[in-house]
Specification:
The complex is a heterodimer of chains A (about 325) and B (about 230). Chain A has 11 helices and 15 strands. Chain A is of the alpha/beta class. Chain A has 2 domains: about 240 residues, P-loop containing nucleotide triphosphate hydrolases (Rossmann fold), CATH 3.40.50; about 80 residues, ACT domain (Alpha-Beta Plaits), CATH 3.30.70.260. Chain A has a 6-stranded mixed sheet with strand order 7-8-9-3-10-11, with helices on both faces. Chain A has a 4-stranded antiparallel sheet with strand order 13-14-12-15. In chain A, strands 2-1-4 form a 3-stranded antiparallel sheet, with helices on one face. The radius of gyration of chain A is 24 Å and the shape is elongated. In chain B, helix 2 packs across helix 9, helix 4 packs across helix 6 and helix 5 crosses helix 6. Chain B has about 230 residues and is an all-alpha fold. The chains are: A alpha/beta (about 325), B mainly alpha (about 230). Bound molecules: adenosine-5'-diphosphate and magnesium ion.
Chain lengths: ~325, ~230
């Protein structure tokens, strides 16, 4: 996307939903866009397949400029871009099988090929037993699985997900996310998803863009963006991850320093903290801590209080930094 | 005593005056007027309803001028009382059906009277469809025609069937009025015998058959709607 802007004109004036956004998503990656409600995420993703026509800017897909295509050509390109929705948007009058076959019917495939493809997809999303049910007979998670199967039916190159898990409970959310991840890995499908939930970004995304008030304020690999957030909104989301912020003020002893440590990768599991304070006179108290994963990378955060002489404390911090830990001294 | 009884009989009902064959013919006429006009009304009304829906604001074919014009025509046709409409369109009826009397002569006015009504009901039924479903179809590369055929008309089937039921019942009462202008059928029978010849019992039988017909249509419609609803 190059310099995409979307302005809604209405009776109550105009809304600048997307402001000059440029993004490049690489084939095969899972690209997340996170932002608070109203940030313009939906408008942005809907500009990608031109459900909303950008007010200005270009949308390029596999070398073709979608924004310059005629209606028929655009329809053909859209068959290579799957999309799933927060509220699933399945045909209520059609069975699961008929819903999944819909893109194949549009493509004019024969009944036999449709049936074979639908069987494959039912298996992929684990709904073999539910093919002849109607959407109203399914749970939210199952409906989203139908949505995913339908979006994949015509073998698209990209899958767009508009808050695909926001209407689901946490457990169903993780099962849908692992389905998306396995599809990404198995089929090499590029996935672009938008969400306001940090957990979604954390568990499956490779790269992320943070949106605020219509602009992309930060962008990059998930770890880089959230371990060293630069923008206020990014910090808010990062804090959701660490859960270190908030709560009662922490107890402080005189002469001690509060240090936040970030561990990334395999060092998360190393006894670096112990090594750093071992030989010195510094005392170390762990106040808070988490160890978790971002997609496949382990990471941890510890809030520790180091007490002792100022030079000993500085020595311990230097030793931590030299073993590759990001140590941030809090005021 | 016996004189009193016969007097009662003469002012009361004489059911032997009813000719079942005549009732049956009238019922057949009503049914063929209803059937034929319903078929054309559905066809024309669907087109009107889909056009109203598509051209209205924020829809696939947003065309405010076309919408306003169509909407005005529909409203005009719906505000003219049917009996006046029937007389007003007589020249057109002659043009289309070749006659203004008999079953054939009633079809054009019945359709012109009922199609705008049905069209509005179709528009309303289509509005009930979740926009998200239409967007999902667009995202899958559906053309406008695909969306009309495979999404709009399919998703709104229960609503459309309910609309057909209401329209059929409206047409039953229209056919009764059409009878007055020479269309035949049960309404004609009721008026000719009941009103003009004071044979109340024929009128009662004709009205009862009409009531049964309406009841039957409503039950059939409700049953079908329940059968195809998936929500
Ligand atoms: N169709 C529309 N017409 C007018 N304003 C809209 C429309 N869609 C979204 N908006 C406005 O654009 C802004 C961004 O909305 P949206 O893209 O849905 O944000 P998000 O998905 O991040 O919650 C909001 O202020 C919203 O009110
Ligand atoms: Mg949204």
């Amino acid at each position: 996307m190059q310099h995409v802007t979307k302005i809604y004109k209405g009776r109550g004036g105009t809304v600048d939903a997307v402001k000059d956004v440029s993004l490049k998503v690489e084939p095969g990656e899972i690209y997340g866009i996170i932002g608070h409600s109203g940030a313009g995420k939906s408008s942005l993703i809907r500009c990608m397949n031109l459900l909303e026509r950008p007010s200005s800017g270009k949308v390029l897909f596999g070398g073709r400029e979608l924004t310059s295509l005629k209606e028929r050509e655009l329809q053909a390109e859209r068959r290579r871009i799957g999309m799933i929705f927060q509220h699933f948007n399945l045909l209520t009058s059609a069975t699961v099988r008929e819903n999944i076959a819909f893109p194949l019917v549009l493509a004019g495939q024969s009944k036999r090929r449709q049936a074979a493809r639908v069987d494959e997809l039912l298996e992929l999303v684990g709904l073999q037993a539910h093919g002849d049910k109607y959407p109203a007979q399914l749970s939210g998670g199952q409906k989203q699985r139908v949505g995913i199967a339908r979006a994949l039916a015509a073998e698209p190159a990209v899958l767009l997900c508009d808050e695909a898990t926001s209407a689901l409970d946490p457990q169903t959310t993780s099962s849908i996310l692992s389905l998306l991840l396995s599809i990404n890995e198995k089929l090499g499908l590029t996935i672009i998803l938008i969400t306001h939930e940090m957990q979604v970004i954390r568990s499956i995304c490779d790269r992320v863009a943070v949106m605020d008030a219509g602009r992309v304020v930060e962008e990059g690999p998930v770890l880089d963006v959230f371990l060293r957030p630069a923008h206020g909104v990014t910090k808010q989301f990062a804090d959701e991850l660490s859960e270190l912020e908030g709560g009662a003020p922490l107890p402080r002893r005189a002469g001690s320093k509060l240090v936040r440590l970030h561990f990334v990768g395999e060092e998360t599991y190393e006894p670096v903290l112990f090594e750093a304070v071992k030989g010195s006179a510094v005392q170390c108290a762990i106040l808070q801590g988490t160890v978790s994963r971002m997609k496949h990378t382990p990471y941890g955060q510890l809030l520790v209080e180091l007490s002792g002489s100022p030079s000993d404390i500085d020595g311990a911090i230097a030793s931590l930094r030299s073993s590759g830990i990001d140590a941030e001294v809090l005021p | 005593m016996s004189g009193n009884l016969s007097a009662l009989r003469s002012t009361g009902m004489d059911w032997s005056r009813i000719d079942p064959a005549e009732i049956w013919t009238a019922t057949q006429d009503t049914l063929s007027m209803l059937g034929l006009s319903l078929v054309f009304t559905i066809a024309l009304g669907l087109v009107i309803g889909v056009l109203l829906y598509l051209t209205s604001s924020r829809q696939l074919l947003y065309l405010p001028v076309v919408y306003s014009f169509l909407s005005l025509v529909v409203n005009i046709l719906r505000s003219v009382p049917f009996i006046i409409l029937m007389i007003a369109v007589m020249p057109l009826t002659k043009e289309i059906a070749g006659t203004t009397i008999g079953v054939a002569g009633t079809i054009p006015p019945l359709v012109i009277g009922a199609a705008p009504f049905f069209g509005r009901l179709v528009e309303t039924a289509l509005r009930e469809i979740d926009r998200g479903i239409i967007e999902a179809a667009q995202a899958m590369g559906a053309s406008k025609w695909d969306i009309v055929r495979r999404v709009l008309l399919r998703e709104s089937r229960p609503g459309l069937l309910a609309a057909v039921t209401v329209t059929a019942i409206t047409l039953v009462s229209y056919t009764a009025m059409a009878g007055v202008v020479g269309g035949g059928g049960l309404g004609d029978l009721a008026i000719r015998y009941g009103y003009q010849r004071y044979q109340t019992e024929v009128m009662i039988v004709a009205v009862v058959v009409l009531i049964l017909l309406v009841q039957l249509l409503q039950m059939l419609g409700d049953w079908l709607v329940r059968k195809i609803s998936r929500k």
